Amino acid sequence: MHKQLLTLCISFLLFFVSVRNVNANIFINEVFPNPVEDEIQNEWIELYNNSNEEININGFKLIDAAEHELVISELYTDGVTVIHPMSWLVVQRKGHTTFALNNSGTETIYLKNNIDNTLIDTFSYTDSVEEKSWGRSPDGGGLLTSVLDPTKGTSNNKAVTPTEILQNSDIGSTGKAYYKINDVKDGSGNIITNVKISVDGNYIHHYAPETIEFCDGCDCSGYTNCCFGTHKIVLERSGYEAWSESINIKTGDNLEANPTLKMVYTPTPNPIFVTSDKPTPTKPSVLGKTDEEEFLKEDGDKVSIDKTISDINDKMTGQDINKEVDGNKIEDDHKTNENKYPVAALMLILGGISFFVAAAYPFMKNSKYVLKLLNKWEKR
Asked: Which residues pair with 229 in a beta bridge?
């Protein structure tokens, strides 16, 4: 019982940890706060799944700066709550009376999961332009811009250029720099997806294409120090050789990389045929033993049976011998007794005669007296 309970607890813990890891790849990717038509009906927020797995966001919460919640359901997502890998899903306000996106001042939106209310992502912007959206560029990246023409449910990369990003992010006044990683390609020019990005040996949980922001105090989404200075950027994808570049980035830099990955060639080993003069092992029997083992077993059984028969014969022979010996003994005893009987009788007779002689001796000693008595008897 304790073992089953422990297994259940471990399974739940692993599931919980895996869910949190997957949820960490969901981003508030684009926000549309100021539509021309009815805002209560037409405001929307786009979420982006930057992982290789489908994620169901049913029950997740969007929370505005006033702490009003919108619980995500099919009502607000046109009947679909599953975000496919590297894809987008739009959550529309659709008449929600409390949750709202501010058009002026600073607005911060929070995304929390439906299991333990863990914060997954935040998105902040200041003011808004009618019929324009705030969004990350590239998708799931850290750079925000206000110049986007709305790209509802599609990639933001099509809506903004590096020049527009620089103009609207005001690099000079904010003291920031950017390193843009374009689409990663192979030797034939084909785009490679799911390429992981590491900065100074730390995986920052983003995939190329991506734009990395550097500044005093920047931390690359919380995974490593992305301040000004020298850094090593590494791109990795299973089946390909790693790509790397060392950069020295300073305020105002706008660097760009067009990496190419080489496929790793793994030679196929030639088959090795081994011949042997040894006989092929016999096929195991039904009981999982070889014929040799079966033979030994049968031979052992035969020896055991022979031994048993031998023991029985020995016992029977012994009994016959004992009977024969006992019979001979009885016959000898009988003969001995027969021999003993005449001797005893003879001794008894001799003893009787001796007794008679001894008793008669006194009378025979005075034989004259005996004769007188006989004469008197005859006269009568």
From this structure: 249
Encoded tokens for 166: 């620089």
Residue 44: pLDDT band (50, 70, 90) is very high
**Amino acid, single-letter form, for residue 130:** E
Q: Report the distance separating Cα 177 and Cα 311, nearest Å.
A: 101
Q: What is the CATH number of domain 22-157?
A: 2.60.40.1260
Closest CA to 209 of 248, 169, 158: 158
Q: Which fold has domain 170-277?
A: Immunoglobulin-like (2.60.40)
CA 101 vs CA 3, 248, 261, 346: distances in Å: 51, 39, 42, 150
How far out from the chain centre does Cα 41 lie? 48
Among 123, 122, 102, CA closest to 112? 122
Q: What is the 3-state secondary structure (H, E, C) of 201-224?
A: CEEEEEEECEEEEEECCCCCCCCC
Residues 227-284: pLDDT tens digits? 999 999 999 998 899 999 999 998 888 899 999 999 887 776 666 655 555 555 555 5
Residue corresponding to tokens 């003969």: 335
Contacts of 212 (CB under 8 A, 6+ apart): 142, 178, 179, 180, 181, 197, 199, 204, 220, 226, 233
Q: Where are the domains of the chain?
A: 22-157, 170-277, 313-380
- Can you say whether residue 204 is alpha, beta or left, with left for phi > 0 and alpha for psi between -120 and 50 degrees? alpha
Look at the alpha carbons of 143, 219, 22, 209 in this order and tell me if their dihedral is positive or negative: positive
